[in-house]
Amino acid sequence: MEDSKTKNILAKKNSPKITFSLLMVAIILILLGIGFGNPRSVWQKAVFICMECIGLG
User: Fold this and answer.
1) Full residue range of the structural domain in which residue 35 is found
2) What does the alpha-carbon distance between residue 29 and residue 31 come to, in Å, rounded to a whole number?
3) Segment 12-47, tens digit of pLDDT
4) How far apart are CA 53 and CA 45, in angstroms?
5) Mean of the pLDDT values across residues 2-7?
6) Given CA atoms 42, 43, 49, 52 in this order, what sign does their dihedral have?
7) Domains held by the chain: number
């Protein structure tokens, strides 16, 4: 059986400030990754792995 303290913790909703803050941090990190050229390197690695999987690499 769950006690009332556990029920209260599970029933609480996230604070809008916390949600907004986490969203802003995620957007900033995504933009930094794009700015440093990470999508290009990730794409190149994905293509290389796929070529290895089909036996061309």
Assistant:
1) 13-53
2) 5
3) 666 888 999 999 999 999 999 888 888 888 888 888
4) 12
5) 58
6) negative
7) 1
